[in-house]
Specification:
Helix content: 40-55%
Structural class: alpha/beta
Number of strands: 4
Length: 120
């Protein structure tokens, strides 16, 4: 944990930002959240997928979003697939979303972030 914290702090000093991915998928998520200076919480897609139909998933997403905001983190919903989910996430106050409901994956253009550029 100390090595990860040190790594994050060093890279944040040059402008990088970090997210805690798949948040909520394991109880260790809360330990990582307390101990790592991340900027974003990516809420695990297994909770997002059914928030329009499952009150427990909805409560979990609301709770994770609330805790993240109290700690000064932005929240990102994974696996956002439709307009109803987008509308509910907006109502809850989730900051960002990713998934087919937002846009389909696209190949990266040749340039600064392409696989070819990373091999150079």
């Amino acid at each position: 944990m100390a090595s990860a914290r040190s790594f994050i702090k060093e890279f944040k000093s040059i402008g990088c930002q970090f997210s805690l991915d798949d948040f909520g998928s394991g109880m260790s998520s809360f330990g990582y959240l307390r101990n790592l200076p991340v900027d974003f919480l990516k809420i695990d897609g297994s909770f997002i997928r059914n928030i329009c139909r499952d009150s427990i998933d909805l409560a979990m997403v609301e709770s994770i979003n609330h805790i993240g905001h109290i700690m000064g983190k932005q929240t990102i919903a994974e696996f956002v697939e439709d307009d109803a989910t987008i509308a509910l996430l907006r109502k809850i106050g989730v900051d960002c979303a990713q998934g087919y409901g937002i846009g389909v994956p696209k190949p990266m253009r040749v340039g600064a972030y392409s696989p070819d550029a990373l091999r150079r």
